[in-house]
Design brief:
Length: 382
């Protein structure tokens, strides 16, 4: 029996010659239905972390092909890491095609945040970055929230026979989103016991980057369109992309964000694990800031003069992340001024919201990562 051309989970061309190359399947499984490569099988059934296999140029070539085939680009953002999700490179590849912005992981924000608030916020951020989206839709691919609205928006932008391509950085949840869309629109549904319907996920997903290897096409029959998934593109200035896979996973929130409020004095420093420090300089004599990050990030307040000592002695110990192997060796320091109602963001890690200010912050981050000031994503309820 002839082997299928591509793995249905990650899109890699299937082959049975070299187990070290993407798309490998053992010769004795050829002929089975719904064939997935050995890498996808191990991720799905054993939760194993498998190497990405491909390289950046392979991924870029696949993304270009997907964009050429499509009439609409659906750019997926991790809403709790918006700056880390934005890619000038992907924006340039999309070019003049209409762009629909999807704000995934909306459920990780505090519950008082409304969908219409983040729609307006993200539209303004994209316009400030030079991109005017055709539509902005917040969703939660894991909970199914907003998926029906997203399908309607995609259908509204496409004509008969048109296609949409999903693009985005690594770990924004593109494959999980496409699985949710497929479950809603009919693809991936099969009969379960008792005649009921059971959802069978189409794409392989994992918390590690590089899971999708090539183009994966998923037909959404009830929506009348075809979606093309593309590999995620790593971001060289995003902190999580500079760490080992296990440390990177710890920076990706698995539930609602951790948030803590601090009233700090000039000369005090707030550490985000051993990965960033924010030291209060001039400004309001007692600024109030709110720290947001994944729950595995340890927040710690200390004096400015003790920061280096604590980072040296405890980073990778109780000050986590990073692990001992990912300890930061080179730092970049920058002084930023943030007004009340603004965030200071470290892409791939988290952010500080200035609740009472203004405040001058001395920010230290690993070399190659740039802190950003933006309008606050989570506005306090007075």
């Amino acid at each position: 029996m002839q082997m299928p051309s591509y793995c249905r989970g990650c899109g890699a061309p299937l082959q049975s010659q070299d187990p070290n190359r993407p798309g490998y399947v053992p010769p004795d499984v050829i002929g089975r239905e719904n064939l997935r490569c050995q890498r996808c099988f191990r991720i799905l059934h054993y939760g194993q972390r498998e190497g990405a296999g491909g390289d950046r140029e392979d991924y870029l070539a696949a993304i270009r092909r997907g964009i050429r085939e499509a009439e609409l680009a659906v750019m997926v953002f991790d809403l709790v890491d918006f700056e880390g999700s934005w890619s000038e490179e992907l924006n340039s590849l999309v070019g003049s095609k209409p762009l629909l912005a999807v704000l995934n992981k909306f459920d990780l924000l505090p519950r008082q945040v409304k969908g219409e608030e983040v729609e307006s916020w993200a539209r303004n951020r994209l316009e400030a970055l030079g991109r005017e989206p055709a539509a902005v839709v917040p969703v939660s691919s894991t909970r199914g929230w907003g998926i029906k609205k997203l399908l309607a928006e995609i259908s509204a932008q496409l004509g008969d026979g048109d296609r949409a391509v999903l693009v985005g950085a690594t770990n924004v949840g593109k494959s999980s989103l496409l699985n949710a869309l497929a479950g809603r629109a009919g693809e991936g549904i099969r009969k379960g016991r008792g005649g009921g319907q059971k959802y069978n996920p189409t794409l392989t997903t994992s918390p590690y980057p590089g899971t999708t290897q090539n183009l994966v096409r998923v037909d959404l029959p009830t929506a009348g369109c075809l979606l093309i998934d593309t590999p995620g593109l790593s971001q060289p200035d995003r902190l999580s992309d500079l760490l080992c896979p296990d440390c990177s996973r710890r920076l990706i929130p698995a539930g609602e964000l951790s948030r803590k409020t601090y009233k700090l004095s000039p000369g005090q420093s707030l550490l985000f694990g051993g990965l960033a420090s924010f030291t209060i300089g001039a400004g309001d004599p007692r600024p109030i800031v709110i720290a947001f990050a994944a729950r595995e990030v340890v927040f710690h307040v200390t004096r400015r003069e003790r920061v280096e000592e604590i980072l040296t002695a405890h980073s990778g110990d109780w000050l986590l992340p990073p692990c001992g192997e990912c300890r930061v060796k080179e730092w970049e320091k920058r002084t930023l001024t943030a007004q009340e109602g603004e965030d200071v963001v470290v892409p791939g890690l988290g952010w500080l919201t200035v609740r009472r200010g203004p405040v001058e912050l001395e920010v230290a981050v690993p070399r190659g990562v740039k802190a950003v000031v933006r309008p606050a994503l989570v506005r306090p309820r007075d």
